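Continuing the batch. This is chain 6 of the set; chains 1 through 5 are on the previous pages. Same settings as before, nothing changed between runs. Recording input and output for traceability.
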Amino acid sequence: RDTSVHFVTAADMLQKPKVKYSGLGLHLKHIGAISLDRKDYTKAEYGMEKAKRIMGQNGVLGWFPEGDCLRGDEIDPKQIKPFVVMFALKNSVKIVPVGIAGTDPDRPIHLHIGEPVPTDTVDIDVNDRKSFVPAARHFESMYYNRLVTAQQVAHQQRTTALEASII
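Output for chain 6:
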């Protein structure tokens, strides 16, 4: 089936001159990126509603869990924002971790699509804050572990490809 990925991006990210006027900023606007305001929850709700509509139509959301494009091969758990986990749990959708290695403009990027993290394995009442916090922590831990694995595989694939191209 044909589907498109709708990327979620921070509203303030698109306002930074180095992104706004770069190829990335223009591309994100062109493909209809969903903008979430990290500072104003009321404005963020509009983006969340748009994301829910896309998911309701079997769409796919691309979401950088760190809230930014970071460099390096390691994922710092402190950098992962809870927004992705909360969205997945509240909407009962799977998160599919994708490892990304290589940001050099003259070298290929390597992606590894990891094992999905289903929300149906988490016992949660989204209306009960007491059940939500431990469930979110448990889910975040599963997600983080699978994201790290996907990142390691992508990095290893990139290293192998670069070594093969040198020889």
